[in-house]
Amino acid sequence: MAKEWIGDGAPPETVISIIGPGMRVVGECATDGTLRIEGSIQGTVRAGKAVVVGKDGEVEGGIFTQDAVISGRVSGSLLAESRLELQATCRIEGEVRARRMQLEEGAMLNGTVQLGDDFLETISREVAPPEAAPATPPEAAELRPAAVPDAGPGPPSETMQRL
Question: Whole-prediction pTM value?
Answer without folding.
Answer: 0.68
